[in-house]
Amino acid sequence: MKHSHTRAQETPATLPQADAPRLLLAEDDSEMRCMLSRALRRSGFHVTELRDGRETVSLLSHCATQTPEQMPHLLISDVRMPGCTGLEVLAHLRRSHSCLPVILITSFGDEETHEEARRLGAAQVIDKPFDLDELCAAAWTLVPAS
Amino acid sequence: MKLARKITIALTLLAIAVMTVLETLEVRRELERSAIDMQHDHRLLGHTLAGSIARAWQEEGEAEALTLLDQANRFQAQVYLRWVWLDGAQGHSAPALPASLLRTLRGGQDGSMVDDTSAGAGVLRSYTPVFINTHLGAIEISESLSEEHQHVRNTVQNAAIATCAIAVAFLLAAMAMGRRLVGRPVNQLVELAHRIGEGRLEERVHLRQNDELQTLATAMNRMAELLLTAREKIALETAAHLATLEHLRHADRLTTVGKLASGVAHEMGTPLNVVLGRSKMISSGEVVGDEVTECAQIISQQALHMTRIIRQLLDFARRRAPRRAPENIAQLVTHTLTLLRPLATKRGATLVSEVPDSLILEVDSGQLQQVLTNLVMNGIHAMKRPGTLRVRAGPTRAAPPTETGGQETEWIRLDVEDEGEGIRPEDLPHIFDPFFTTKDVGEGTGLGLSVSHGLVQDHGGWIAVRSEPGRGSCFSVYLPPGGP
Q: Does residue B425 carry a pLDDT above 60?
């Protein structure tokens, strides 16, 4: 059932422009990741796919040393992932004083998860299953107008 | 026999005994008084005649003197007088008198004796000594005691009748009083005790007397009141306890439902989203040609995945009782491992059975195979690098877990031991919870161990686990040797 995470990059619906907003997508389910990536690219984002929490934290730590032009504009992360949950990724970001907007997607949408996400400053928490257009619209509202 | 009747009869017998003793003493006293009176009368008569006889004997001779006695005999019939010589003078023999009486008479004093030898009730003989010249004679006065004895008999008879009459009257009065003062109140108290025993705590008893039984009645009434109060308190507490229990059960049901709902939502959310997204891509015309086929395949895979989750959830919810039959465990294990070998080989895992051929157990083969499949699949998934998974079985002594309780006894233990990554200590307490899983999305539903745990419990056993992170885990299934 799992597919290679590079498949979405190989078959983009539309290629994003060079100055497209940079978006990090953390999702462990390959099908879900592939589909989300495709929809977000089509919507105009430059998407970097990440397979689990550890990989996400590692990339974010690396980003901190990069120039502002290379910094991502937005992170969309699943909550439940092996290694490190979306909430832990968010907590890591806040500890490193990053104000990167974060959208969490979860199918374990209990009140405690929503509460914890709000406390850690998640821009939005979206429960699965959701409409892809809805996610893209929410992502665009968090990207700086410039 | 009732207590009141016993006391009454005992008192009556005591009264009869006392009255008999008193009557006996009274009769004796009367007899003694009568004897003294008779002797006194005899003495008076004897002395009255003694002087006359002595004088007549000296002046007119023996015949005249004895004529006086005959005349005296003619005038009264109660006593009989006659002359006797006490020293055997004139050729007469002396009467057979006791030596002490003879000594008294020879000393010139009067004396009496009761002659029992004669027929009838006996005779009182009194002697008044008279000296005729130098010879000692005596006037013998004899009086029958039959009248006295008749008097005694009458007295005793009257006393007995009076005693019996008094005793009967006493008995009747005592029984009537006993029934009224003891029997009836005691019956009322006993009746109250029975009613209290039957739970009729509102019953009371009211006695119209001022004695110990009234005190007992008051105490029993008070006891019934206290019991009634206690019962009402217990009823209230029980109702509150039941309400709390019901509340807890409701809360527990809600927790279970919530847990299941969140588990289902978690497992279904992602595949549903994929189905939704892919179908939209097709319907919107975003994908064309081979991509449509690919989307359809992905939708099909996700639907199958969701079907599997729902089937397992239903298996979990609709657990049936095991249908036990003697099963060769070695064959069952071999069959299970054969089915799972392709999956194991794909992941570089080797499956080994070390179960003795002779091991036969009364189990539901389908359910035990399901348990083994779950445990072996978990082991295979836990082995990220090549290793060996062993299934062993054999007898052992063990005590059931504390929540089940029981003594240490003989069990059959089936071990499924892998060389995987092991389980984190913080995850160990949750591994049997429904929907708890540490596997990647799509690899497990979190129901396998929970279902296995329930199936083994239905067989009267339990599952234990020991694990060492980085080294592997061993799941031990304990089953009763001959079935429960």
A: yes
**CB-defined contacts A:B, below 8 A:** 65
Q: Does A109 touch chain B (CB under 8 A)?
A: yes
Predicted ipTM beyond 0.85: no
Residues B331, B336, B339, B345, Cα dihedral to 10°: -110
CB contact under 8 Å between A29 and B280, yes or no, is no
| Predicted model pTM | 0.48
Chain centroid to CA B229: how far?
25
A17 CA to chain B: closest CA distance, Å? 19
The answer as to CATH 3.30.565.10 being correct for domain B322-479 is yes
Assess if CATH 3.40.50.970 describes domain B1-154.
Answer: no
Identify whether B469 is preceded by a cis peptide bond (ω within 30 of 0): no
pLDDT digit string (tens) for A21-70? 999 999 988 889 999 999 999 999 999 999 988 999 988 888 777 777 77
Domains of chain A listed by start with CATH number: 22-142 (3.40.50.2300)
Rounded CA gap, B431 and B168, in Å? 92
* Nearest by Cα to B203 from B180, B231, B223, B184: B223
Kindly report, residue by residue over A75-107, the tens digit of the pLDDT.
999 998 877 899 999 999 988 888 899 999 988
Does A54 contact chain B (CB < 8 Å)? no
What residues form DSSP beta bridges with B478?
Answer: B413, B462
- What is chain A's alpha carbon radius of gyration, rounded to the nearest angstrom? 14
Residues of chain B neighbouring A26 (CB-CB closer than 8 A): none
Pick from B268, B273, B301: which is nearest to A130 by CB?
Answer: B273
